[in-house]
Amino acid sequence: DAKTTQPNSMESNEEEPVHLPCNHSTISGTDYIHWYRQLPSQGPEYVIHGLTSNVNNRMASLAIAEDRKSSTLILHRATLRDAAVYYCILRTTSYDKVIFGPGTSLSVIP
Amino acid sequence: DVKVTQSSRYLVKRTGEKVFLECVQDMDHENMFWYRQDPGLGLRLIYFSYDVKMKEKGDIPEGYSVSREKKERFSLILESASTNQTSMYLCASSLSPPSWLAGEKNIQYFGAGTRLSVL
Known about the structure:
The complex is a heterodimer of chains A (about 110) and B (about 120).
Chain A: E1 9-13, E2 18-23, E3 32-38, E4 45-50, E5 55-56, E6 61-64, E7 70-75, E8 84-91, E9 104-109
Chain B: E1 4-6, E2 10-13, E3 19-25, E4 31-38, E5 42-49, E6 56-57, E7 64-70, E8 73-78, E9 87-94, H1 102-105, E10 109-110, E11 114-118
Parallel strand pairs in B: 2-11
Antiparallel strand pairs in B: 1-3, 3-8, 4-5, 4-9, 5-6, 7-8, 9-10, 9-11
């Protein structure tokens, strides 16, 4: 399975943008990039996904490098509620198993 | 919104007890999953099911079994609980799209988790 690497932790000030990076240098042409986040004492929740083009939704934006070997999840204005562990995951077309790495623990400072 | 409900948020059991963890989803999803989450080890897949009465082993099935008698319900069973099964247990569900849409549509929806302590 293709792997992803993320920083263990990041900090952001409240109401400032946050850029969470993810490297996936062995990504295949059919892999989608998915992001989930896990709030304290909750199960993971889906945030956003994309294949080649940048994507926006109500929660976040996803910027995908032209060579697709890296991507960045962008939270436009961090709030205290955004403090969570963020997971970057590759989803293939062949198998529905989700492989979660350790993710990035985001702290938001008031 | 998709809702995945786990029957208990917290559970305390004794070594050797038989433990049932229940999970129900309300979106008619074909696929259901059980994970456990431990500090430093991330989420690990225990069992999953693609259809009623169908089950497949995940990465760490030892000491566990599952039951899926109805589409909306997936149960995890600890036949004889042991202290090393103290963990957070997470249930998830997803649609089963055609393989050419799998990357696009394979969003998993998780329950809030059950924190199980085995004493």
